[in-house]
Amino acid sequence: VVMSRETDVECHQPHGSASPQSQGGFSQSHGPSSQPHGSSSQSQGTSSSSTSTVPTSSQSSHSSSGTLSSLDTVSTQELYSIPEDQEPEEPVPAPWARLWALQDGFSNLECVNDSYWFGRDRNCEYCFDEPLLKRTDKYRTYSKKHFRIFREMGPKSSYIAYIEDHSGNGTFVNRELVGKGRRLPLNNNSEIALSVWSNKVFVFFDLTVDDQSVYPKELRDEYIMSKTLGSGACGEVKLAFERKTCKKVAIKIISKRKFAIGSEREA
């Protein structure tokens, strides 16, 4: 059977048409025992010639499937990158109080956390480390941890703000000494002084209390009204802060009724 197969291959393929490099693969498939002794060179020749017509695996796959050859190129389409899912940003909590600075070297503070330490220690949330402040005479009277402002839950699920004194030189609220280790509640427009009652540093502004509505809108758009500085026969003087610059100003409020001497038309 083997000899007849070789003869059939011989009839269809011309002798010596393939290169000698293709001899090994086909002769190994039949094995040395399938060839008669002395005719190995001829059978190898015929076998190698038959392999020239048999397509390789890569060629057969291209020809049978009708795809392009390796020399042809296929244009690629650039894919747009798919954006990764971004985590939603957590909303920034609204401040519950604001400290207005009354002196150079101190800055305003928006109270968002429930507790703030004030002092010369760098571990304090509000550190007295401004160069301008360090050049003042009172700087050495400030403690490393001078005072703390915090809020706690009170009755009817409402918060109460407190100031706690931790300084040997004292913390004052509206000229009243708090006392080391003691606390006092902080009301809207309370004045905070350090070391001596006249060294006023902050005004505490409670943002949960809306007492601005009593003033005209034109005034509220430009200023934030604060504590009363003084009062007299003609009216009262209020401390206020410009909304754009946070600059301190004094606003005098005069009652028109006190000038209504004549008729309503004259008034």
TrEMBL record:
<feature type="domain" description="FHA">
    <location>
        <begin position="116"/>
        <end position="178"/>
    </location>
</feature>
<dbReference type="InterPro" id="IPR000253">
    <property type="entry name" value="FHA_dom"/>
</dbReference>
<feature type="compositionally biased region" description="Basic and acidic residues">
    <location>
        <begin position="1"/>
        <end position="13"/>
    </location>
</feature>
<dbReference type="Pfam" id="PF00498">
    <property type="entry name" value="FHA"/>
</dbReference>
<feature type="region of interest" description="Disordered">
    <location>
        <begin position="1"/>
        <end position="71"/>
    </location>
</feature>
<dbReference type="InterPro" id="IPR011009">
    <property type="entry name" value="Kinase-like_dom_sf"/>
</dbReference>
<protein>
    <recommendedName>
        <fullName>FHA domain-containing protein</fullName>
    </recommendedName>
</protein>
<feature type="compositionally biased region" description="Low complexity">
    <location>
        <begin position="16"/>
        <end position="71"/>
    </location>
</feature>
<dbReference type="InterPro" id="IPR008984">
    <property type="entry name" value="SMAD_FHA_dom_sf"/>
</dbReference>
